[in-house]
Specification:
The complex is a heterodimer of chains A (296) and B (143). Chain A has two domains: 151 residues; 104 residues, Cytochrome Bc1 Complex, Chain D, domain 2, CATH 1.10.760. Chain A is 42% helix and 3% strand. Chain A has 13 helices and four strands. In chain A, strand 3 and strand 4 form a beta hairpin. In chain A, 38% of the residues are buried. Chain B has 143 residues and is mostly helical. Chain B has one domain: Up-down Bundle (Four Helix Bundle (Hemerythrin (Met), subunit A)). Helices cover 75% and strands 0% of the residues of chain B. Chain B has six helices and no strands. The longest helix of chain B is centred in the N-terminal third of the chain and has 23 residues. Classes of the chains: A mainly alpha (296), B mainly alpha (143). At the A-B interface, helix 12 of A face helix 2 and helix 6 of B.
Chain lengths: 296, 143
């Protein structure tokens, strides 16, 4: 009996240690850090900004300038309310003191400068596919924006989601498998479209259904999902879901917001369209090409 | 023959009763649907389909009708049912109504401003911006 108790206690300890080690935040590797040390190009970064739609969550509330990134939107989810932080270059309230490496840690690994996990409401599950060059260009662009003082409210979640360390285990499970498959027989436009949709554009974060733990159900990617705040639905944007849409329809919707039946894209997608409208036309074409593809 | 007339009469009466009863959700959906149809051809022309001033005038008439009627079709007892309208409408009724007034003003201005293809290309996008402005805040599609 005592032996059994000892074994049980030892096992628990072992599990706790294993859990602690497994859930520890990891930062980017040396090669990526070296890439991030190269100065970024803000003009190229501007395109990434609109491809990623940073403003949709991070722009200052109660005003309409997408380049004022004081944060503070209340992102209501079944896990609690998240408040995307200030990512303006303000030195005390924003990311003004960040290095490009810290920026890459955040977007690729979901880890903050002080080594804590970010909640996956910040969509690094998609951003982790971004290329280092794009990250440093984006960071360089963000640095050119006006600093905004003030912080967003602190995100407080209910137990057990308030234990940030738990996010480490979430990452182990949901972020397994790294880069997108090579697909060498694809043309450059399709490749760009896939990169934009799956990476910076993070379309799947709203358009994919999630399981009980908030992880995207991989087999149902992009097939539509209820919007987390309970208002309506993000529609199916797989090739099947878009069967009544032509590529030209998709390009039009991402430029003007108009759908093939004369309706407009509304809700959170209205802000997305304001961003995609800023992209080069070839980018919207690439997105259409990727989405209208029978093989995905 | 008599029977057909009787059925026809009954249907008409039924329809009349439904109108009198008032089904604001159905009515506003019909208005929006008509707007969508009109907008389809407007977007088509903006993208390069042949310009037709009569079609544009008809669309503007349609918009004017919708802008005039819509505000009254969102009474307090029409929040739920077969509708994509968000509660935000009733929380911000003044803004909601003001947006339709602005839409109506833009349509009136466009009706005089649009005389040819060039003025259409310059004016219509501004009119159509009103659609998305409301749909962003006040509607959430369920499908």
């Amino acid at each position: 009996m005592t032996r059994l108790a000892v074994v049980a206690i030892l096992s628990l300890c072992l599990a706790a240690v294993a859990g602690w080690v497994l859930s520890s935040p990891t930062k980017i590797d040396k090669e990526t850090a070296a890439e991030m040390a190269i100065p970024g190009e803000p003009v190229a970064g501007r395109i990434l900004f609109f491809a990623g739609g940073c403003d949709s969550c991070h722009m200052s509330q109660g005003q309409s300038d997408p380049l004022k990134l004081g944060g503070g939107l209340a992102l209501k989810t079944p896990f609690g309310t998240f408040y995307p932080p200030n990512i303006s270059p303000d030195a005390s309230d924003g990311i003004g003191r960040w290095t490009a490496v810290a920026f890459a840690d955040a977007l690729l690994k979901g880890v903050s400068p002080d080594g804590a996990h970010y909640y996956p409401a910040f969509p690094y599950a998609s951003y982790r596919l971004m290329k280092p060059k794009d990250l440093r260009d984006l960071f360089a662009f963000l640095e050119t924006l006006p600093p905004v003082a003030g912080r967003a409210p602190t995100t407080t979640l209910a137990f057990p989601f308030d234990i940030r360390r738990g996010v480490g285990l979430w990452k182990l499970w949901y972020l397994r498998g790294g880069e997108l498959p090579a697909e060498t027989d694809r043309g450059p436009s399709w490749m760009l479209g896939r990169y934009l949709v799956e990476g910076p554009g993070h379309c799947g974060e709203c358009h994919s259904p999630r399981d009980l733990f908030g992880g995207v159900i991989a087999s149902k990617r992009l097939s539509g999902a209820p919007i987390l705040d309970g208002k309506g639905k993000a529609p199916d944007i797989t090739t099947h879901g878009l069967k009544d849409w032509s590529k030209a329809d998709i390009i039009e919707a991402l430029s003007s917001g108009f759908t093939p039946n004369g309706d407009t894209l509304g809700g959170a997608m209205a802000a997305v369209v304001r961003n995609t409208a800023e992209l080069p036309k070839s980018y919207r074409q690439a997105i259409a090409e990727y989405l209208k593809d029978d093989s995905n | 023959m008599k029977r057909f007339v009787a059925i026809g009469l009954l249907l008409t009466l039924g329809w009349g009763a439904a109108m009198a009863d008032g089904d604001p959700i159905k009515d506003r959906r019909d208005l929006m649907k008509a707007n969508g149809e009109a907008t389809k051809s407007m977007v088509g022309m903006l993208k390069g389909a042949p310009f037709d001033l009569d079609v544009v005038k008809a669309a503007l008439k349609n918009y004017a009708n919708a802008a005039a009627k819509a505000p009254a079709l969102f009474p307090d007892d029409s929040k739920t049912g077969d509708t994509n309208a968000l509660p935000a409408i009733w929380d911000n009724k003044a803004d909601f109504t003001a947006r339709f007034a602005k839409f109506a003003d833009d349509v009136t201005a466009a009706s005089t401003a649009i005389t040819d293809q060039a003025s259409f290309q310059a004016t219509m996008p501004g009119v159509l911006k009103n659609c998305g402005g409301c749909h962003e805040t006040y509607r959430a599609k369920k499908t």
